[in-house]
Amino acid sequence: MSAAAHTNPFHEQLYSKLPNGQAYYNIQKLNDDRIKQLPYSIKVLLESAVRNADDFAITKADVEKIVDWVKTSKQQVEIPFKPARVLMQDFTGVPAVVDLAAMRDAMARLGGDPNKINPLVPADLVVDHSVQVDYARDPDALSKNLAKEMERNSERFQFLKWGSKSFSNFLIVPPGSGIVHQVNLEYLARVVFEDNGVLYPDSLVGTDSHTTMINGLGVAGWGVGGIEAEAVMLGQAISMVLPEVIGYRLVGTFPQHCTATDLVLTITEKLRARGVVDKFVEFFGPGLSELSLADRATIANMAPEYGATVGFFPVDKRTIEYLRNTNRSEEKVQQIEAYLRANDLFIDHDTKNLAAEKTYTDVLELDLSTIVPSVAGPKRPHDRVAVSSLASDFSTGLTKPVSFKGYGLQAEDVAKSAAFTFAGKDYKLTHGSVVLAAITSCTNTSNPSVMLGAGLLAKNAVDRGLVTAPFIKTSLAPGSGVVTKYLEMSGLQPYLDKLGFSLVGYGCTSCIGNSGEIPVEVSTAIEQNELVAAAVLSGNRNFEGRVHPSTRANYLASPPLVVAYAIAGNVNFDFDKQPLGKDAQGKDVFLKEIWPTTHQIQEIVAKNVTSAMFKEVYATIQEGAADWNALQVSKSLLYEWNEKSTYIHHPPFFQTMTEEPKPITNIDSAYVLLNLGDSITTDHISPAGDIAKTSPAARFLTGRGIAPKDFNTYGARRGNDLVMSRGTFANARLVNKLLGGKVGPNTVHVPSGDVVSVYDAAERYQQAQQPVIILAGKDYGSGSSRDWAAKGPMLQGVRAIICKSFERIHRSNLVGMGIVPLCFANASEDADSLGLTGREQFSIDLTSQPLAVGAVLTVKVTGGKVDSFQAKLRLDTEVEIAYYKHSGILPFVLRKLLRDSKAQQASSKQ
To answer: Which residues contact 375 (CB under 8 A, 6 or more apart)?
Structure first.
């Protein structure tokens, strides 16, 4: 990992060896008392800086900035960071490999060496986002869904296999193996790397926002867009603002009847209220002894939901125990502990006055004894609701104005119901009826306590004669095969099966929108009667339109609560007062009677989760199923693009790129493509779910001879820019103020006044050579680290986004694609307060003065209530300004590699 072309200025001072002779860079030898105060997560950044220092890309001044973190973290100081590896899933990995293949073509076209486009750090890709729940409540659902996944995605998978053969340092874990973050936790994570005889901390960036789950293992990692990940693969350091670190002290004892999910939903609510965007959160305190490694991973996983870059748990004894339990070799485990202790990266929680040893930007405290059973929703993951309050929270929200809690129903519509017949029996739906219940997602299915807790609850329910309605789409999608092993060994899987929670696949399903169809009788009843139907899932994302188009209320819950609500059949349900059903003796059965105790769960975890399971599952994880192995590909330097393909297409990003960047131009008289409100997510911008039959993307696919049944999803089509540009802003739940708040993927083409799809409006503007911008509110771009949420708007001609605030990853992605991110300079201002409707035209001067970090620009308005307003330029580092001048990070990197390649070619000729 250390730079080879330049001398490391810290080598003589810090290069050390362990007693066994293994080498490392000892940050304690800097002999600076400030280092002792540094949070553990900042020490990881420091170690990387000193090890990779070369007085060129990483300098002594950069190291000093990190050492002086107490002061510099408050000053928006920029530092470089070189992660040890890159992690991808297939939805984001396919476009990343497409970009790399396109960059090789561009390198060849411009006279450079295409071999320069190659991962220089290990890149792991887990195929986990393509499986859909087409089959459920079926003993053969697993094999049927996997076969359907291969049938739909063989073209994508073949391309990925080409990438694994044609690029070095590129490992693929085949479909059907598990969720990327659980596979990372249980198998891929190194914790400590060894390269060329030098030990150093494992660290990574991933093309999925929940990469943060690995923080629970003491590994620093976070989500970035595929754009930034590609740059890291190509040897570039990440340019980042040195973050503030919020210390989160955990105290007290975990109450009975609560789960790690209840804890993380509480933490998410509190940290979102505190405001931790762009910050690190580091957990410490005596309460950590209450948390298993899986509990910590659950909390770390949801860092994107509470807004932090990481939710970090330093390595301690529990971490070491977990590594042994997951079948890491004893030699490796001992190496990890010895190195981390030697470099003061290991935490002993029994050390007195631990808080006094570390300096944090701020310290929060949570008493674990105050946690209560909770869910989150109905539209955002940080809107926690105590289970005891959910019935009233949901029912009062029905008539509230449309909002994150409200549905805007008239009073007379609250009592609506819909009768329907399913499988020969009559049923009735009301508002709040649960029509989808899924034990799914990386957040919880890595955690044996909640998974076995769900199994125990299912057993107790079945023993008392309880059932779930057969029309509810129930599913179980664990994060790895290990879960199946311990559910089977414990004897609990059959009880989950009886309640409909049969194994449907190993992958990211309902949480990403791969829920599959619900029964047509159910969806018809919901649509015709405009019911607010509900989904309950053990996931981390519940944004509008994400889980399923028919479920307007979506609640995140622990796996046992998913089972409980599936039995109850409605979220408008009071578990304390209402029985779940009657037993064989006609006696009412209440949830508290069948809910397993913490002791029961711990006992069954201890008996049924063994290291042998991890050894067995991961011994063959890279082999893949027969259909995967049947895919034939050959190695080649350049990819042979097929213009007939509707999955993989040569993107336009580099096809016309010149050797030198073109001059920056002003944004003159731009129209507003969309005028949006708060919390616009990357799902609103670039949905991952089904392609609507009347959408521009559907028109394109139909024109290519693709039948609607074969449309697949937007997520699966991310390798084709012609589909994805048409799918940008195609979310059915998009609320556009240009349409007076009407919901749908449409907008007003301002010059004509026509109401058309967003893509069609953008195409009209581009044909007329008219630039467009987007207006938005707070937290623009929250949610998944989705590069297409930046690529799509760029292809639609969007030059700038002006909003109240950005989510971290999305702002970075916009810069990476050459879109100008701007925030209203006056905190009290927004589009509404300035009287902006979106029918005005906007001009932004980007050339009269050199672009500068933190610059405040004047935005001129034509046809509005104001003539101008001030906006802060959110190019946050000097490197980001350089990226923008090159129209994005990848053209910047490509030009750099091209220069290096031509210099080497010239040198070899001399």
So the answer is: 265, 384, 385, 387, 390, 536, 555, 556, 557, 561
3-state SS class at 171: strand
Find residue 200's DSSP bridge partners.
Answer: 193
Q: What is the CATH architecture of 374-596?
A: 2-Layer Sandwich (3.30)
Task: Write the pLDDT tens digit of every residue in 539-554.
Answer: 998 988 889 999 999 9
Q: Are 158 and 633 in contact (CB under 8 A)?
A: yes
- Please report how many Cα atoms fall inside a 13 Å half-sphere around the Cα of residue 843, on the Cβ side: 10
Q: Which two tokens stand for residue 664?
A: 């920056």
Average pLDDT, the chain: 94
> By percentage, how much of the chain surpasses pLDDT 90?
85
Rounded to whole angstroms, the Cα distance separating 332 from 192 reads 9
pLDDT of res. 4: 44
Extents of the domains making up the chain:
11-81, 374-596, 667-885
Q: State the CB neighbour count (10 A cutoff) for residue 320.
A: 20
pLDDT in the model for residue 3: 37
Write down the pTM of the prediction. Answer: 0.87
* Nearest by Cα to 565 from 438, 476, 477: 438
Reported as a single tens digit per residue, the pLDDT across 500-553 is 999 999 998 988 888 999 999 999 999 999 999 999 999 998 988 889 999 999
Distance CA 332, CA 336 (A): 6
Task: Evaluate if residue 615 carries a pLDDT over 80.
Answer: yes
End-to-end CA distance of the chain: 30
Peptide bond into 745 cis (omega under 30): no
Separation CA 70–CA 571 (nearest Å): 47
Give mean pLDDT, residues 233-237.
89
Rg (the chain; Cα; Å): 27
Give the phi and the psi of residue 862 in degrees, each rounded to 5.
-115, 125
CA 364 to chain centre: 25
Using CA atoms of 80, 85, 89, 95 in order, give the dihedral in degrees to the nearest 10. Answer: 60
Cα of 904 vs its chain's centroid, Å: 39
- Are the CB atoms for 146 and 176 separated by under 8 Å? yes
- For range 677-681, the mean pLDDT: 93
Backbone angles phi and psi of 136, in degrees to 5? -145, 165
- The Cα 219–Cα 310 span in angstroms is 10
CA–CA separation, 868 vs 744, rounded Å? 30
Cβ-count burial of 829 within 10 angstroms (0-12 exposed, 13-18 middle, 19+ buried)?
Answer: middle
* Average confidence (pLDDT) over 286-311: 94
In 3D, which of 481, 487, 478, 477 has the Cα closest to residue 455? 487
User: Is the pLDDT assigned to residue 910 strictly greater than 90?
Assistant: no
Between CA 688 and CA 718 the distance in angstroms is: 9
Residue 325 half-sphere exposure, CB side, CA atoms within 13 Å? 19
Map tokens 């049969």 to a residue: 502
The predicted model gives 738-748 an average pLDDT of 93
**CB-CB neighbours of 117 under 10 Å:** 26
Beta-sheet strands, E only, within 607-739: 667-675
Q: List helix spans (H) across 328-447.
A: 330-342, 354-357, 390-397, 442-445
For residue 350, what pLDDT band results from cuts at 50, 70 and 90? low
Q: Report the candidate in 813, 908, 877, 705 with the shortest Cα–Cα distance to residue 229.
A: 813
What's 116's DSSP letter? Answer: G
Q: Rounded CA gap, 205 and 228, in Å?
A: 9
CA distance 377 to 511: 13
Rounded Cα distance between 647 and 511, Å, is: 23
Give the span between the Cα atoms of 321 and 324, in whole angstroms. 5
268-298 pLDDT, tens digit per residue, is 999 999 999 899 999 999 999 889 999 999 9
Fold entry, domain 667-885: Aconitase; domain 4 (3.20.19)
Sheet with strand 310-312: strands edge to edge = 310-312, 280-284, 245-251, 362-367
